[in-house]
Each structure stands twice: as C-alpha cells, then as structure tokens.
C-alpha cells in the first residue's frame, strides 16, 4: 500500500475504533466529542485543556471551552483518557493505553515517556510487602539534564 493510502486506512480504523469506545462507555456520539477525542489521541505531546481547546477549535469553530472541560471530565471518568500532573498546576491529558512513566525536564518542561520492567516489578513487590496487590500506579520523575 502506498503511504498515503496507509495513512487514510489508519485514520478510518481510528474513527471506527473511537465510535466503539463511545458505545462502550455509553455516551452519545456528538461531533465535538469526536473531535476532542481525535485531538487528544493524535497529540504526541501532553496537551492541557487550553491547548486541547485551541486544537479542537481549529477543526470546529463552534466548540466552546466549556464543552472541552465537560468532555474531558466525561472521558476521564470513563477512563479513555488519563490526567497527568507535572506539578505546574496545569492538568495535562493523554490517551489511556499502554502503561508508561514520565520523566519531566524541570528546565524545559519537556515530558519524556519511558517504560521499565524492573521498576514495574519493584512496584509490585513494594505493594506486596505491605500486604497489597498492586492495581494501579503512577510515577512522575522530575530531572535536570546532566551536561557532559
Ligand atoms: Zn504519556
């Protein structure tokens, strides 16, 4: 398949998959909701509400900031998106999915995603030692880049 066709095919699949998600969480599919979900899922960064609003409004002028707030809350409660707090008072959002951790560069604000199996095992063991089964966890690392 040519690149452009592949891209179109991927987009079509994503659209169908998103409609399945709406059915699964039992919310009515509306155009603003579809657009907001697409904006979050297509974001490589971790946008905050204002940024999601900016990107959504570029696709549909009729979307209001209030709609964005309401929709994000709805998606968060339905666990199709996740909130990320990097300690600057602005909640950021990303698509819920493959588990990963975040390393936040405190100088630039860059958010770097990573996965570490040893860390996962360690977290399970820590909970276990305290008499708990680990069901969920979040970890944000804050760092300054070492200049060599
Ligand atoms: Zn992330």
Structure description:
- A 3-stranded mixed beta sheet has the order 4-3-5, with no helix packed on it. Strands 1-2 form a two-stranded antiparallel ribbon.
- It has helices at residues 3-25, 31-42, 49-59, 65-77, 117-129; strands at residues 81-85, 91-95, 101-105, 111-114, 140-143.
- The model has no long low-confidence stretch (mean pLDDT 88).
- It has 2 domains: 3-95, Orthogonal Bundle (Arc Repressor Mutant, subunit A), CATH 1.10.10.10; 101-143, Dna Ligase, domain 1, CATH 3.30.1490.190.
- It is an alpha+beta fold.
- Strand 1 (81-85) and strand 2 (91-95) form a beta hairpin.
- The structure holds zinc ion.
- Residues 46, 94, 100, 102, 113 line the site of zinc ion.
- Zinc ion is lined by residues 46, 94, 100, 102, 113.
């Amino acid at each position: 398949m040519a690149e452009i066709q592949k891209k179109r095919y991927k987009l079509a699949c994503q659209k169908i998959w998103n409609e399945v998600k709406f059915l699964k969480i039992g919310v009515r599919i509306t155009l603003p909701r579809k657009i907001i979900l697409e904006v979050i899922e297509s974001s490589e960064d971790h946008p905050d509400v204002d940024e999601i609003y900016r990107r959504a409004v570029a696709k549909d002028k009729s979307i209001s900031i209030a709609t964005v707030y309401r929709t994000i809350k709805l998606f968060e409660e339905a666990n199709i998106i996740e909130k990320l707090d990097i300690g600057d008072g602005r909640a950021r959002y990303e698509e819920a999915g493959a588990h990963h951790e975040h390393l936040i560069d405190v100088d630039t604000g860059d958010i770097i995603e990573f996965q570490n199996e040893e860390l996962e095992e360690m977290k399970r063991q820590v909970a276990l030692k305290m008499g708990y089964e680990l069901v969920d966890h979040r970890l944000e690392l804050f760092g300054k880049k070492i200049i060599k």
